[in-house]
Amino acid sequence: MNLVIQSLAPLAAEHHKPLTALSRGSILTVIDPHAVRIDNADVAQRADLDVYCATHSLDYAFVEAGRRLTDFGLVAMDMDSTLITIECVDEIADFCGLKAEVAAITEAAMRGEIKDFNESLTRRVALLKGLDASALDKVYEERLRLSPGAERMLAGAKAAGLKTLLVSGGFTFFTEKLQARLNLDFTRANTLEIVDGKLTGRVLGEIVNADVKARTLREACDKLGIEPSRAIAMGDGSNDLKMMAAAGLSVAFRAKPVVREAASVAFNHVGLDGLLRLF
C-alpha cells in the first residue's frame, strides 16, 4: 500500500522523517506542496498515524499501489456539508426563525441518532409550512458556497473520464442549480411542494434516504455500464453510509464519527480536491 499524507497548509518538510518511520514505509515522494506519498507503508501502523496526524492536522489515506483515478467511472457526492458548506434545510428554516430547532434535528439525523431519515426530513420540512418560496433563492444566492476544492476535484474527475452524480437528501431546487452551474451528469434529490408561491410543508414523491442514495448510485453505474466497484462515493452523514458501502472507494468529508470510521478515506482538513492526490 501507498500512504498519502495531506495538509491544508503547505506540508512542512519536518514531517517527512517521522511519517516515514511511523508508517514503516520506504520511499517518500513529494506530490505537491500540500502532500507526500510514502511507498510500501504498513497498514498495521494506522493507530500511530491516527495520533500523529490528528496532532498536526494532517489527513492520511492508504491507497493500493498503482491505483489510478481513471480506474473509476463515477464520482457520487452528497450535497449538504459535502459538495457545499451549508445544510440547506437549516438555512431555509432561518427565514422562519426556526434554524436552531431544525438544525438540531439535522445534526441528530446525520450522526445517526435518528434512525428514520424519512421521519426526520418530514418533521423538518413541516416546520417550513407557509414560508415564501423566495427564501429558497435567498439561500442559494446569499448563503450557499461550494466546499473548498470542489471545482478542482470535479475538473480533475472529468479530465480522467469520470461522470458525476449529485445525490442528496436535500432539495431539487438546489441540486438543479448546481447541476447547471457545475455541468454535473446526474442528480437526485427531494422536491419541496410549493403552492401559490409558498412552501406547503410537504415533500413530493419518494424521499431520498440512505437506501435511495445507494440505489441511485447503482442505477447510475448501470447507465454507464460499470460495476459499483468503479464508483467513488463522498459524504458526511449517516444517510450516506449505504451509498458509500456500495461504492469501490468511499470518502468521508469533514464527516460525523460514524461515517469516518466506515469510510475508505477521511478528509478532516483538506478540501475535496484531496481526492486527486490519492492517485
Automatic annotation (TrEMBL):
Q: Which key words tag this protein in UniProt?
A: Amino-acid biosynthesis, Hydrolase, Magnesium, Metal-binding, Serine biosynthesis
Ranges of residues in domain DUF4072: 3-49
- Any idea what this protein is called? Phosphoserine phosphatase
Which EC numbers does the record give?
Answer: 3.1.3.3
Question: Which segment of the chain is annotated as a signal peptide?
Answer: none
- Quote the cellular component terms of the Gene Ontology held in the record: cytoplasm
- Recall the taxonomic lineage recorded for the source organism: Bacteria, Pseudomonadati, Pseudomonadota, Betaproteobacteria, Burkholderiales
* NCBIfam families from the UniProt entry: HAD-SF-IB (TIGR01488), serB (TIGR00338)
Gene transcribed to yield this protein: serB
The pathway it acts in is: Amino-acid biosynthesis; L-serine biosynthesis; L-serine from 3-phospho-D-glycerate: step 3/3
Where is the catalytic site? 78 (nucleophile), 80 (proton donor)
Record carries keyword Plastid: no
Q: Which family does it belong to?
A: Belongs to the HAD-like hydrolase superfamily. SerB family.
GO molecular function (one): magnesium ion binding
InterPro entries reported for this sequence: DUF4072, HAD-like_SerB, HAD-like_sf, HAD_sf, PSP
Catalysis performed (reactions): O-phospho-L-serine + H2O = L-serine + phosphate; O-phospho-D-serine + H2O = D-serine + phosphate
